[in-house]
Design brief:
91 residues, 3-stranded antiparallel beta sheet, 3 strands, globular
């Protein structure tokens, strides 16, 4: 049986997709993070509330961007992930 992702892993996946795309729309994040729309909206709201992402709207809809705080979080998460993997632990 496949192990479920932790909330931290899901948040990092979302931030990673936004970073890689240099700003991403909901559909890109949905497919990249493999989440349902309802769950994704909750995570995006949480990330906005924590000021890790910003939302910019145009005539095509919303696009999400990482804030400096979001970039710092993602950078530190990757360090922690490498550290944990060195000891055989998955986050």
């Amino acid at each position: 049986m496949k192990q479920r992702r932790s909330k931290l892993r899901i948040l990092a996946d979302i931030l990673g997709i936004i970073f890689e795309e240099n700003g991403a729309r909901v559909t890109q994040i949905l497919y990249g993070a493999n989440l349902s729309y309802d769950r994704l909206v909750k995570y995006l709201d949480e990330l906005k509330a924590k000021e890790l992402i910003t939302e910019k709207r145009d005539d095509q809809g919303a696009r999400y961007y990482l804030t400096k705080k979001g970039k710092d979080f993602l950078k530190e998460f990757k360090k922690i992930e490498k550290f944990a993997e060195a000891f055989g632990v998955q986050i």
